[in-house]
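S.,

As promised, the iron/sulfur cluster run. Input:
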Amino acid sequence: MSSETQNKAKEISEKWDNNPENIIEMMHDIQDEYKYLPREVIESLSNESNVPVSKILNIATFYNAFSLKPKGKHKICVCMGTPCHTLGAARVAEALERELKIKMGETTPDLKYSLEETRCLSACGLAPVVVIGEDLYGPATVPNIPKLLKKYEKK
Amino acid sequence: MKPYTIQLMICAGTGCVSNQSFEIKEVLEKEIKKHNLQNEAMVVTTGCNGFCGAGPIMVVQPDGIFYQYLKVTDIPYLVEEHLVKGRPVKKFMYVPPKEEIPIPRMNKIPFFSGQTLVALRNRGMIDPEFIEDYIARGGYRALAKVLTTMSPDEVLKEIKKSGLRGRGGGGFPTGVKWETCKKIPGDRKFVICNADEGDPGAFMDRSIIEGDPHSVIEGMIIGAYAIENVREGYIYVRMEYPLAIKRFNIAVQQAKDNGLLGDNIFDTNFCFDIKVRRGAGAFVCGESTALMASIMGNPGEPRAKYIHTVEKGLYDCPTCLNNVETWANIPQIVLKGADWFTGIGTGDVTHDPWGGSKGTKVFSLAGKVNNTGLVEVPMGITLREIVFNVGGGIRDGKRFKAVQTGGPSGGFIPESLVDLPVDYDELTKVGSMMGSGGMVVLDENNCMVDMAKFFLRFTQDESCGKCVPCREGTKRMYDILYRITKGEGKEEDLDLLEELSNMIVESSLCALGGSAPNPVLTSLKYFREEYLTHVRDKKCPAKVCRELLTFSIDPEKCLENGHGCGVCEKNCPDGAIYGEKKNVHFIDSMKCGKCGVCFDVCKFGAITVE
Ligand SMILES: Cc1cc2nc3c(=O)[nH]c(=O)nc-3n(C[C@H](O)[C@H](O)[C@H](O)COP(=O)(O)O)c2cc1C
Ligand code: SF4
Ligand code: SF4
Ligand code: SF4
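Predicted complex:
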């Protein structure tokens, strides 16, 4: 176990008073830091917070917010809210699948992009909405997808 | 309020921020300096204005001139014209659909003038990150009144009298809930604000927190005072709302710094504090018992509510859970009185708290309507007024088909019921529900079977899996709907759907399962013909279910309008399109994967879908 991950886990656990009841907040902070929950950080966090690894894994799989696998550098999310659906989000999603040559939920082999559906982002005025990293785009249209992705090619 | 003569209120809600409202703010400030106007004009970032489809939005006060669709590059011109030469710029103003003359003033635009603001009274008027702005608009006056002149019982009486009902979905009378919580013995009680806002297509609560977080805090403090023995409060916010979380945290800190939260509030012996907790992406956590499990660091599985959470909630203590909008209404009711509140809305609540729907409701209007955004309207207003007056009618001149209210727990309301007054009881009567206020407008190009399938996919994804009817039943229903949209449905399927629905409604543990079949039941009730067309004729009249469609090219349009431009051929992922450049193109239906790309890319409307 590297000391860096141990320190991170310690720092986060202390921020939340080492209180096992705050485990979900601690996991959020780790997810924000690493973009997923690395196994060794989970183990360190378990030591620090006194929450069993099994319980952390249970929470991680119950909630959509957490991922146990690393994600691509650019996480692409297609909003699956009702207004986005009525305005063609499914077609936008397919266009992304075609462009990236991966299916929903997958990551490109070069770890550059991952593609996900996301729960409603409540930016419905801009439907259909696509989020790449922290950037929100809308209305996203099928013909625009290649241009949109180009912006991230070199990043 | 401030010594400046002109205020430029730029919207900094999620929608406008994504359209660069902060960059616009920077350029505005630079241009104002350039013209040496920094002592007269001030730029204020506000919460969501609600007119999200037209962002970024800016309102120039005190005249209330409304600008929309602004771009960074427009700003130098706008500052020069409006601020220097005093000529408001027409081309950035709102023009009603199908008209040509712009409406300069915000309060004359039907989208805004059709609204009655209570929960959203400060929208666009204050910078949500400054408590001073809130106070300047009468904020925390209700709290002062409560703590210095009213007993807890008197506060409770006022809320009961107002007839306020929960805005989170169920419409439970708030005063009754508070009273029950108050009566249960216990010296440690909690109040919680539910900001999980899980219904897809709903963004009322996000906008209230982003735009006016102190109104929620003030409401919660008043609630804690009225219920008594409440020293701790929580707000549970969806993790998908980073901006709301940030602003709420700032607001809590400012309230603490100003002695409005913490020990001995207003120098009385009343103490109360609020903690912020992030949700973790599970719809079921909007349900009261699941939400509380989640705050305590557990998976959000509902429990059976033989004992209600007002008796035994968070840490087994009596707990009062209310929605964001419910809390935001409280200070206004206290300030203006219950009689003012009961003057708005439907029914009579003097003897029966369930006897009517009082006050206003915030809806997020989205989908196929011209003005998407947040609208606050009096209870009892008709759907027609919301969709056609406030909402400005259907986009692109299409035909209105239905409104979906209540999210995955609600249902579809067909065009024939468009004059329905919107309140808790009327919506329930027609098989839908108020829900938290999501209102998605559908037009002739939306397929009801597809929409029902969409919601079932959502609920079966979000089912926590604890009980079989919900876990397995919604999956079965989804499979049947999927088959129908693929053209493999049978007529018996419709009866089977109804049977399964009734079984799930009756035997699910929590309301997620209990209301999951509503979208199917209402679409079957009002749009049975459309299901039958899918099943019998293997056709989708709205042209959505693509396994039932055929794509072809109209040779005349292709040649005459498009001169056989070949764009479709280049973009077809299946290589199903043939044709010489400058000549008519054809689709090989055997190869066509029905992706619809050709339809999207042909600029000449030559692709026909049957
Ligand atoms: C599956 C499910 C999801 C819910 N989601 C929410 C929600 O996102 N926001 C909300 O305020 N209430 C939600 N509710 C309703 C709450 O359980 C609760 O009734 C409400 O927060 C009470 O507040 P109110 O009386 O002020 O409406 C949900 C209920 C269920 C069963
Ligand atoms: S009805 Fe569904 S969501 Fe509710 S407890 Fe049962 S399985 Fe879980
Ligand atoms: S894109 Fe349209 S106009 Fe161009 S070749 Fe295809 S069908 Fe013809
Ligand atoms: S629908 Fe898709 S696969 Fe079929 S012809 Fe058009 S572009 Fe090609």
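The pocket of flavin mononucleotide (ligand 1) is lined by residues B 166-170, 172, 194, 196-198, 283-284, 286-288, 321-323, 326, 436, 510-512 (CB under 6 Å). Chain A has a mean pLDDT of 91.

- D.
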